[in-house]
Fold:
Amino acid sequence: MDIKQYMQTVGRQARAASRAMAAADTNVKNAALLGIAAAIRRDAAKLIAANALDLAAARAAGLEPALVDRLTLNEKTVAGMAEGLEQIATLADPVGEITDLKYRPSGIQVGKMRVPLGVIGIIYESRPNVTADAAGLCLKSGNAAILRGGSEAIHSNQAIAACVKEGLAKAGLPDTAVQVIETTDRAAVAELITMREFVDVIVPRGGKGLIERLINESKVPMIKHLHGNCHVYLDDAADRAKTVKIVENAKTQRYGTCNTTESLLVARSRAAELLPDIGRMLATHSVEMRCCAEAMAILKAASVDAALLKEATEADWYEEFLAPIIAIKVVDGLDNAIEHINTHGSQHTDAIVTENYTRARRFLREVDSASVMVNASTRFADGFEYGLGAEIGISTDKIHARGPVGLEGLTSQKYVVLGDGHIRG
Amino acid sequence: MDIKQYMQTVGRQARAASRAMAAADTNVKNAALLGIAAAIRRDAAKLIAANALDLAAARAAGLEPALVDRLTLNEKTVAGMAEGLEQIATLADPVGEITDLKYRPSGIQVGKMRVPLGVIGIIYESRPNVTADAAGLCLKSGNAAILRGGSEAIHSNQAIAACVKEGLAKAGLPDTAVQVIETTDRAAVAELITMREFVDVIVPRGGKGLIERLINESKVPMIKHLHGNCHVYLDDAADRAKTVKIVENAKTQRYGTCNTTESLLVARSRAAELLPDIGRMLATHSVEMRCCAEAMAILKAASVDAALLKEATEADWYEEFLAPIIAIKVVDGLDNAIEHINTHGSQHTDAIVTENYTRARRFLREVDSASVMVNASTRFADGFEYGLGAEIGISTDKIHARGPVGLEGLTSQKYVVLGDGHIRG
Structure:
């Protein structure tokens, strides 16, 4: 197989399909989503059988249990994929919405129309359910998609792809509107991220290693986040009960998600009062605490399990632990906290706990992250929690979408101008 | 001078200044704009003297008269720069605006806050007035800017830069918020477009050659357009009087602008009726017509000056002539016109002339360009005409801003979340 030629064909077909998708009626797109869901439900046994081939290969190759777990499809996860698609069908169609249509002094009316981005390339790792999710979101937002899943999920992904094709075709849409790459050759990714004539945006989903490589090699704009080093800052005016509750949820609800808090900052004026309770709470979850000297002294004096206390290194302030580990630092106050977050953070999600109106306002404005929060857990940074209905990923970039990216993030706005024979003077 | 080290210093200073700019009050930013304008008015003679050095060098180097013309500063153009800045001071500040703040079922409030992009790198050619314009727009939108003008304008740009620094400092803002590169070494551009840690977006302004080179080499996202191959399509239901009026304005008002029409498409059912008048009108402006065979036959039969009629080549359908030349093609109808525009166009600005409601709606939705128009001249695609107040450039990209980019295009939106001790369930 000539990979370059194959990818060029995929790209050309996607570009052609994107025109039909952009013009497709909402009810036709919804029919395709429901058709794909129905095919997935009907083919559950087939999907699980295809998945068994991937699982056998993964085990033979000695893949880590966590990866095998993510790769696994069963009746419940297959039903979950179908439900996800049915839910996307219920979301409002963002395409075609016209806003801000206003008369100008020249007499023309100028407004903005929301339109699909065109062709979206999605590169992801082992979870096969991303194939159905991503296909559904791209379809509903009027885009064509090129999906490239992990090589370890190739049989599962191709089986899901067959359902997607069937749903598209039955609804009268081009079955090339969603193409799942059929080769596990890495050269296909290299082509995908450089075919600027056929691909409008790349959404990578995966570990930091994958994303870093793609950032360096991509010639196509990306909607992405590299990692999540989220902070909770306990301000001088923090409500004591809220501090323990929010830190517990933000750190310990799930350790492996990008919106989990990795660093805790505490205003010096409250450190001796607040840290002991928090340290004891973290110890009940066996969370390792990497502390600055001041925090260490306070936690030691409070008899927090010494086995869980470590001296923090400079690198810890930058780290996404994805584990029961948290970095803890005592800071002078708000200015120092904002400076620390903007310097060491990942511009993902950061929260302040405070009852002080002025400092809450300043934190919201001056912390340069995709999500900034007052008195809430960083774990809320999520498309469903924000009301987007679903999310294709999270962006920590500055242009286009920031934070959780839903259907609207897969669109942009063009200008529409209505005249009656108007010419420019 | 070590260019890499110099640019790293510029980048680091810009990143630091961008924090102060993001937090700056509207009245402080306006004071800086007015201060820069005042310094420019006061230093008019100095600016013109600095410009004389550039002009002498340009003439000695044998620069084309059109380039020398663009490079020239005089009392009128200097006053124009100051007026431009004063006008930017009157525009609404986009920064900090919170929209869509809504309660979610979990109890949190989620909304979006408009924030600056951070550090904007602007790369432009000979016009020195871009230095003042770009500085003003970046400043008002709360961004820090790194400006790299053409080497032929180095003295003029440095003189303007002194006024910018003075205005910033007097208003209490860091004078590194706008830095004009002091070297003409091309290596500085190579650094600017690859310093991802210090530069959030690049806005290139210049000819196709410059933009193409930057697209290939940039590691930083860009807001840009490569060229403008704008179309007017005369539909089966076009109003005859409007066709001549719009084509005349769109093609002949100015030949060198990116929103000038370069291709004319005519529905076959109306070609024999509409083309003779249009051909004669274009002939009075000495516009060369590059025609498909059908259009050629009609125009010849109508006795349009044969010296102005040429056979079109395939390349002409893609061409931005920037000259008194237009490509003319007879098409089957709307489908054919949309297909032609989406294939050969530059996704800049395209217009339909029609009285037909359904085809007008389809053209607006299905033509994939930054600006789509009904019964209006493509010349309207402009920040002032659209009510943006000013524009930093035009984007034909799909993500972020499309079309004329004003203050809002130099910002994005982050999420703000307000809770009262809320945690995720």
In short: Chain B is about 45% helix and 20% strand.
